[in-house]
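Weekly structure sync, notes
Attendees: PL (lead), two postdocs, one rotation student
Agenda item 3: pending single-chain targets
PL asked that the sequence for the first pending target be pasted directly into the notes so everyone works from the same version. It is reproduced below exactly as submitted, 196 residues in total.
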Amino acid sequence: GGCLAVPVTTTVQIKLAPTAVISPASQNICQGTSANITVTLTGTAPWTIVYNNSVTNTNTTISGILTSPYTLVVSPAGNNTYTLVSVNDAVGCPNGAVSGSAQVVVKPLPTAAIQGNADQTICTGSSATIPIVFTGGQPYSLTYNVNGANPVTITGINTNNYNLVVSPVNNGTSPATFNYALTAVVDGIPCTGNVF
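Predicted structure, written out during the meeting:
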């Protein structure tokens, strides 16, 4: 009548180290706006990530991330590249793998301006050419109005020096004045800019 040994079992669970991948690799934003950078995480929430920005070469820590993918919102004043440095999760396994970098290219806002003194006098049935100078990225979309009304939008302008040809119609018997004013410009990014 000996004693029976009762087997004791121990379960060892192996957790994988977390991972973090940053994307997209590159994106354009308009000056004064923000960019959304996606960080895709694996492991167990909550996560802590550290990322670096190339302009100041400083690291920023974000902790308490509860969901994946995580959206990192940045508002750089100029071109910047964001790179992950490290990732940790709730389990605490070391050496989490990080990969990818996200370049944010900040595009200046476009402009459109009537060049010089474009006031003109034409005869009935004739046309007038209004020179307009653009800055920004082609193609441009330009909106103008006549005497503060009747907005007209022209799209697909693929030059920085554009001649707007207008043919105003005078239905009266007295001379008439038509004032053309630029009201909006959008470039190919698309960024909405300033008109002069």
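Discussion points:
- The chain is about 0% helix and 50% strand.
- The mean pLDDT is 93.
Action: rotation student to compare against the earlier draft before next sync.
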